[in-house]
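pls design
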């Protein structure tokens, strides 16, 4: 009897959800190819980075935040500041500065939601309010160009939304390299790192139970999002210095453009729209679609899930309690974020486009 032939495992096809560790994306990046502003102070998360900034600028003033904001940021601020809200929605062409009336000594947090903001819209406003400290969150467009364009006094971001790291939040600096704050590595981040390794094996077709790394992701996220201080993993620092960040950014931008063009070229015009950047510059974030109704959004979401595409909802404003405006609630119920990042090539994006079109047509049949 001859030797038993061993078949290579069949890779798993799916799109979206948490990043995995991909060895092909890691190599020493040539000088000038990094899209991240690789200078500043590294914390365990964007939340911890923001809290560090608030502690540094602790004072009697109020803190202003857009009505359409990440619930975790709202929770972090509510515990530490007198919170006021102003109107700046991702489906609007500009902030409503009439709703923003800070006093001397106040802090305004500018959130570049989905990377769609235009820093120039804030520059003249800041010139007219010299006694107000402006902090900008560029999590959804975490690039060197965006950091340098920001007129804000301080800039921070959660880097794990843009690159395959288990944790990481940066308070950016104008000079020097990356440095980690002191402290003990977060247990949740270590869980997420383990989950990223297991997911890589799963996608390669190895015998990994998906529920195992999903549980690690969920438990890890719960611990990570509640962390108020501490350093990022040493693995995160090494990753930020070695990822092919320039190539990753180019792929992401190309994917967003390809998906929009594919949807626009459909024979029957789908009744959804893309949220587009105010500045005209492509952000480093997934494509965000605005549906006509919550029912249409849910039908599309279920269709994508049934075909192994895992979209995100940014964000469920139902979790904000009485603090969420009616406009926030209505908008968040109609938005769906589909995965277009650097993990995917043209074939993935074309399949995603076909699935979106089919899901929308299915609603009407």
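designed seq:
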């Amino acid at each position: 009897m001859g030797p038993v032939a061993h078949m290579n495992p069949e890779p798993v096809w799916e799109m979206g959800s948490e990043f995995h560790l991909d060895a092909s994306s890691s190599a020493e990046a040539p000088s000038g190819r990094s899209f991240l502003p690789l200078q500043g102070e590294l914390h365990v998360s964007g939340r911890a980075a923001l809290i560090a900034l608030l502690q540094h600028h602790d004072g009697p003033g109020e803190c202003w935040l857009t009505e359409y904001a990440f619930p975790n940021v709202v929770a972090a601020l509510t515990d530490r500041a007198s919170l006021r809200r102003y109107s700046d929605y991702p489906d609007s062409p500009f902030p409503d500065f009439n709703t923003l009336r800070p006093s001397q000594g106040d802090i305004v947090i500018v959130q570049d939601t989905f990377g769609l903001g235009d820093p120039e819209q804030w520059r003249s406003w800041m010139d007219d309010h010299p006694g107000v400290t402006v902090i900008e969150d560029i999590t959804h467009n975490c690039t060197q160009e965006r950091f340098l364009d920001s007129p804000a006094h301080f800039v921070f971001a959660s880097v794990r939304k843009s690159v395959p790291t288990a944790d990481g939040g940066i308070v950016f600096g104008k000079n020097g390299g990356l440095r980690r704050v002191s402290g003990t590595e977060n247990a949740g981040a270590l869980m997420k790192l383990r989950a990223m390794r297991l997911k890589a094996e799963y996608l390669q077709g190895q015998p990994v139970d998906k529920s195992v790394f999903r549980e690690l992701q969920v438990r890890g996220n719960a611990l990570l999002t509640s962390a108020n201080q501490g350093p990022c993993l040493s693995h995160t620092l090494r990753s930020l210095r070695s990822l092919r960040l320039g190539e990753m950014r180019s792929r992401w931008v190309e994917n967003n453009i390809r998906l929009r063009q594919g949807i626009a070229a459909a024979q029957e015009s789908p009744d959804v729209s893309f949220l587009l950047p105010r500045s005209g510059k492509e952000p480093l974030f997934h494509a965000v679609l605005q549906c006509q109704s919550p029912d249409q959004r849910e039908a599309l979401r279920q269709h994508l899930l049934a075909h192994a595409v895992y979209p995100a909802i940014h964000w469920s404003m139902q979790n904000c309690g009485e603090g969420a405006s009616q406009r926030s609630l209505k908008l968040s119920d109609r938005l769906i974020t589909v995965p277009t990042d650097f993990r995917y090539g043209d074939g993935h994006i074309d399949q995603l486009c076909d699935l979106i079109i089919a899901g929308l047509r299915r609603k009407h049949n």
